[in-house]
Amino acid sequence: MTSPQVTAEDLGEVYCKDKNIEKKAKQATLYVFSQSDDGKRQSASALWAIAKLEKALGIEADIRNVGETEFVMSLTFQKKKDRMKIGKIIGVAAVTFVGSIFAIMTYNEDVSVLQVFEKISEAAGQGSGGVRILACGYAAGIAAGIILFFNHFGKKKLTRDPTPMEVEMDKYEQDVDDTLIKKESREGSSFEHS
User: Fold this and answer.
1) I need a labelling partner for 123 at 20 to 30 A (CA). Which of 130, 131, 140, 163 fits?
2) What pLDDT, in 10s, does the model give residues 136-148?
3) What's the CA gap between 123 and 101, in Å, rounded?
4) Contact 181, 70 (CB under 8 A)
């Protein structure tokens, strides 16, 4: 089994007027992970990548970086889904579901929603039957609000906008990458321009 390689194409877009050079540049190996590097992350700079690419091409080229000056490379092998992982997902979903129900119920009790419904129903001359209508509308409104806020209904996304969870995960991943780059830069373990 060969060791996983990082090519220039893996790191970003590669464009060149000469399509033969472009093809060679895209396939140029810049870094090789060892088999024991599963889950390992390595920070590197654009200058390092440009130097490696120039060396791999073997010709003098004008290479320009248009993106980030530092980046993180990571290697993870695809693993089969195990039952433990599925069990964790179900457990987290169950805790989140029950916690959400509890939070909504305590909020409703805290602000006395039932008493508000009773007063609205009395003011409208509906009696106790009006409370049920208001409660059903309120419950449907909460469900619709949750669906619209999270932008999902089952597996179907309602719009192309990212969900709040996707936004937060993106922020988290960016923070992890930034922290790793800063840490390795301080320790001197990131790839230097060579």
Assistant:
1) 140
2) 888 899 888 888 8
3) 29
4) yes
